[in-house]
Design brief:
The protein has helices spanning 8-13, 51-63, 116-131, 172-190, 195-205, 305-319, 389-401, 414-425, and strands spanning 3-5, 28-33, 45-48, 75-78, 86-87, 93-98, 104-110, 142-151, 161-162, 214-222, 234-242, 252-254, 259-261, 267-272, 277-279, 295-300, 373-377, 430-434, 457-459. By secondary structure, the chain is α+β, with helices and mostly antiparallel strands. It folds into 2 domains: 3-319, Double-stranded beta-helix; 369-471, no CATH class. The strands form 4 sheets. The protein has a 10-stranded mixed beta sheet, with helices on one face. It has a 4-stranded mixed beta sheet with strand order 5-13-12-15, with no helix packed on it. The chain has a 3-stranded antiparallel beta sheet with strand order 18-17-19, with helices on one face. The chain is globular.
Length: 472
Amino acid sequence: MPYQLLSSEEVLERGITLPPDIPSHIHLKVIAISRLASPYPPPNLHMVENETILNLWEEHMDKVPLSDARLKKKEIQLMDMNRLQYDVQEGENIIFVDDKTNETVLVVVQNLMNDPKIVAVMNGVCIDQLNKTSLLMRLDDAGRMASVGYTSGQHSTGQLLWGKSLKEKNNAEQAYKISCIFAHSWQNALNVLPQDVYDGVVKEYEVTKLGPPSGSISVNYERHIHNEKNLNKYCVSHTTARSHPPEFGGNFYNAAYGIRVPGRIDQLVAWAGSDYHGTSLANVDLVDPKPSFHQSGLAFLLSNRLVDSHKKTERKRKAGVLDNKDFFDPAEGPDSVAFNNKEEIRPKPRAVLPIRKPIKDRGADKVYSKQRIETFHLPADHPYKRWTKKQMIAELDTRNENGKPLIFNSSKKNVGMMYLLLKNDGDEVSVTYADPPRAESGSKSIAGTKDETEEGEYDAADDDWKEEEEDD
């Protein structure tokens, strides 16, 4: 048998620690389950549970282009339910552990809040947040997902700040509401989650009392079978609304162990992000602004870029260029409490999956900022001429610590590092920019490629310094 229901004695023998403060209305059982030799459902496929949903989505996938033409559309496959090892039934609350390592692989807790009115309010706040959000995540997946809480910012200028994706300028009240429901959900989750699920958050991030600093909210969101590496080992989701039974799709799958978790309202699910997992496509009208199928909720996720963005933020703070304006202005404050007398905020009519237009061709002559050629004008003989990149980065870090602040990007070439050091020394240096050379009509040669750099100049497009020096 691929799984085994463990008794209390077997749980103790295996060294499995159960949550100490489990609510009286929740009865947890522990199941040891074997990892599949190969994941099922298979990775990189969209899964559907019946022919009706299959026909609906196949037609839609053929018509709708992806947001990025470089991406490839995922295929759709019909589920074979006989290949699953376990299907979580109504009323079951289970901690799944690996039968060999005894590590937690999946947690399913139904009726977490045990209060329909609170769940309705939480769902209303989630939907209201999505309606007011201008930036969405994972545009090629079905449904809508938006990040909330602290974000790592743009890749080019990362900075650890509270996400500002709302359309309104004064969004302190909305942020206060969304923070409240995340905190309330996390505090209830701590009562039912095994210690190893949230242990990394306690030891590494020290945010357990207040809840993880970032997460996401979604409505009718489905994604193909995939795995991911986050800052936290385990992802935790809480479903705040579900309108239809499992036959309509939108069910969660742990493909590494062949487990299906049908979507249910007020259901908590925790899983290891490194294990293959995904959500099946739902039987939903894809462009109806008021679809009858509705499933929404929140999830606790920590991006891998948060640590790097935190380091960049500290560098900017030391350099005195950090935009450290408080997101919550104490003088303003929220206009009202997070939970008012309304049991639910009605969502605005919005389509489940937008019809996207093909990507506009920018033309062959389009020049992007990263393609522009930098020419650094430096003294002919300077003290950093033979320094390695590692030496220069160490020197820049030392200057930051010693009160000579400057901002630098460690991905720059050697000549860029020299430019920063000399500029910080007070030497006369400069940099000019030029468009990349273009091929002449009817010729394979590149026009304007002759090196016209005068003595004492370094051209970033023709860097003299060898890459081996960077590894010294």
